[in-house]
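Re: the 275-residue chain
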Amino acid sequence: MGHHKGFTERGVLVMKLSVESANKFYKTFVYCDSKSAKLFKVNKIPFHRIVVVDWLDEYDFPNWGLAKLETMLHQTEPYIHIDFDTILTKKFEPRTDDITWGYGEINLVQSNTLTYEVIDHLNLYYDVAKKYEEYKTFDYSQIANASTIIVNSPHPIGDVIKEVKQRIIDYKDIISPQMNMFIEQFIFFQLIKSKSYISNSFLSTSDYNDLNVYWMYEIQKQNNIFDKFINNGFIHWPNMNDISDNMFDYFYKRFIDTLNLIDNRDTKIIQNSII
């Protein structure tokens, strides 16, 4: 429903990378509608389990993030959510907070740097907020990215998602990437932060989370930068459709090589433990 990746040729390749990387550290489950389940099977996306749920088949979710939030609402045990354009390179360290976001899409508290790119990105949220919300009450200094979320306390987080659903009734049917991000990331994070009884944190405060167009060009100039992304433990690849075929192939191969290195490392660990 308007998602810019989905079951395109590149989208399927990166889905496989994402799930294969997660499978190295966790059991992977996907909750989906029946049409998506067929596509996952046809395209051989290697989940440990595909679960078809009737409420995803029976209801329309105008913005794709709403289905994601609805799925999170239905969880009753601790879980990790991973977007299909996120590749894991390590198992996450244990977390104690109720909810941990992968990183701050905007994190002026941590960086103390205000660049043009940050202003431009903030304007996306500010523009939507001033049309549909009491925007002056919001704190724009931190905005979570929702590509990776670790939830230790599903019930209070579920209660906040119920609150999100009530709050957005008047504008949830406005379909756009900007509105989707506003609902899925901005409003959700703002409400989480407003609850003193819910602890939240960022998993990473590094600069090496988003493999965006800027970093892809920088990596081709300075090869060792890619290692910093690998060492961060997880990599969000949001701009896979904004690059040439040659550049996509280059980074896709780098990811395949990284996953093979993880396999080789684990094999050595097993062999050493046997010895």
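The longest strand covers residues 142-151.
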